[in-house]
Amino acid sequence: MATDSISPLFSTPEMDRVFSVAHQLRQMTRFEWALSAALESAGLAHAGAGAAIEPFLDAAFVDVPSLFLEARQAGNLAIPFVRQLTAAVRERHEEAARSVHFGATSQDVLDTALVLQMREAIALILADIAELDKSLTRQVRAHAGTILAGRTWLQDGPPVTLGLKIAGWLAALRRHRQRLEAVATRALVLQFGGAVGTLAALGSDGAAVSAAVAQKLELQEAELPWHTHRDNLVEVAAALGMLAGTLGKVARDVSLLMQTEVAEVLEPGAEGRGGSSTMPHKRNPVASAVILAAAARIPGLVSTLLAAMTQEHERGVGNWQAEWEVYPEIFRLTAAALDRTLEIARGMEVFPGQMAAHLDQTRGLALSEAVSAALARHMGKEHAHELIHRATQLALAEHRHLREILLAMPEIREHLSEEEIGQLLDPRNYLGSAQRFIDRVLGETDAVR
């Protein structure tokens, strides 16, 4: 239940609505409505049993304080919920009240309600992914030629382009979209098995009732009830965990590029955004902080679900209950991370001049690999590497530009002219297949759209 004071940081209003108690109760009522209508169709409930529940689909009949109090004694919300629904229906339709929840068990209503909530939540996540895809695509196109230092082990390496870096984010995002769509087809299925997963209370009508409930709720039927087989739901959580990891990678890159001594990128600016309570000059990576916090929290939540998969026999004790607050929290955190990543993607400020200045500050050392590769064609990789290593160490020790050192080395001048050395030390000439990789990603976009 997202009622704490920091909820606005780690959720979105839309996701809070989906996983609110009120909406959970509405989805539980939808299950009971679908069941009563299915029982009626099979001749197991009086005429009008389904229609008798329709006035209660908003779940306004529920006395929530009483529900929570009784749930402490019952062990779940479903038992007092069914009691309250039955009493409400009885006031309007005595015969219909007799068939409320017939053939089902508490876990059927709670699991199916969760599936219905997850269906809405996944739709929200996929819609945000689509918007983020569009924004990142625009940034890739805008910065395909924006050159900055590639960094390995947090040290400067040869140049890359900002467009290539963002294309990496985008390609991963698309893989997560595909994963989430795939796992949703397995997870968004009806839970309906009765006490031990046999629907024995419905006799020979079990199959017909189950199919009718699924149709009413626009869900697929599962192969069989999955009360203690939680793999499909956990797979959704794992997919969200991987998505959050990629969003965290984006936030980590952005926050590192925002460091004072780097200042190559900034999150979108606004009045009062990113300020410090004590340092007026600060512009903190506030969106990245939320994303990174979500990415740090979700793996632990996923691990809880993995640990909770070892459930006993046909109906588990304890581990099923351990899931109840975990799934909503994972969805809330993922929604918040996506929302803040979209914020960055739409309004990120980029400073190409600062990027170029940082490359210049290396005094050519960032292009040492380019010179070594060119020289290797004349003398072999090992010898070339040894020569350029010696040159770079001298440049570092004497605070001189690598070009100056190279021009003074006869072993190098024998094979490379001054013009060739100048071209090799130009970052624009050492981007390799960067544009081809970008074109692949943008080509996928063009093919889809």
Write a structural description.
This protein has helices spanning 13-18, 21-41, 49-53, 64-74, 78-90, 94-97, 106-142, 162-187, 206-217, 231-257, 286-307, 319-323, 326-347, 352-361, 368-379, 381-398, 402-407, 410-413, 418-424, 434-448, and strands at 147-152, 155-161, 189-190, 220-221, 265-266, 349-350. The chain has 449 residues and is mainly α. It folds into 3 domains: 1-104 and 200-224, Fumarase C, Chain B, domain 1, CATH 1.10.275; 106-191 and 226-351, Fumarase C, Chain A, domain 2 (Up-down Bundle); 356-448, Orthogonal Bundle (Ribonucleotide Reductase Protein R1, domain 1), CATH 1.10.40.30. Helix 2 (21-41) crosses helix 7 and helix 7 runs antiparallel to helix 8. Mean pLDDT is 94; it is low at 1-5 and 445-449.
Amount of beta strand = under 5%
N-C termini distance: 39 Å
* Relative helix content: 55-70%
What is the CATH fold-level name of the largest domain? Fumarase C, Chain A, domain 2
CATH superfamily of the largest domain: Fumarase/aspartase (Central domain)
Given this structure, which CATH class of the largest domain is correct? Mainly Alpha
Domain count, please report it.
3
Q: How are the strands of the biggest sheet laid out side by side?
A: 1-2
Total helices: the number is: 20
Please, what is the average pLDDT? 94
Q: How many β-strand stretches?
A: 6
Seen as an oligomer or otherwise, the chain set is single chain
